[in-house]
Amino acid sequence: MEATAEQLDALQELINIGVAQAANLLNEMVDSYIHLSIPIVKVLTDVEAYQELVSQYHQECLASVKLSFTGSFSGSAGLIFPTNSASTLFAVLTGEQLDSAELDELKIGTLSEVGNIIINGVMGSLSNVLMQHLNYSLPIYLDDTIENLLSAYEDNATIILAQTKFTSEKLEIIGALILIFYLGTFNALINAIDEKIALI
Question: Any idea which architecture 5-199 has in CATH?
Answer without folding.
Answer: 3-Layer(aba) Sandwich (3.40)
